Amino acid sequence: MLIAGLVSDFPPGTITPFEQARFFLIRFADGGFLALSVVCPHLACVVGWDAVRGRFTCPCHGSEFERDGRVVNPPAPRPLDRYTVLIENDRVKVDTRQVLRRTQTDAADLVYAPPGAAGTAPEAPPVVPFGPGQPNP
Ligand code: FES
Fold it and tell me: DSSP secondary structure string, 16-78?
């Protein structure tokens, strides 16, 4: 189990490479974490993150992947594989012992810090209903 860092080390909307462990840790804008393998599911070249294009790209045969690993351009036959992410005591851990093969992407693959944990969004303010005499936006 690799301790990637604290939740707050990975702001929403970031992609952090862990080159030795051969994965990218993605934190989506909604706070969800996903650890993607760097290994292209076509013929196992190493993909890189192209920040300009906002895609993972494979230098060997041109496959491209969205930040959730789904295929944008073949010949890759399926999404990037992933690793299990755990969040315990405000620490983000990635289980690099076993790669989880994916044939499709799934929102359930994302892992979220418990509400109120450091680095998570504060609770939404209470909704105040509009009443008489208040402006209607
Ligand atoms: S190995 Fe990645 S596209 Fe062929």
Answer: EEETTTTEEEEE-TTS-EEEEESB-TTT-PBPEEETTTTEEE-TTT--EE-TTS-EEESS--S
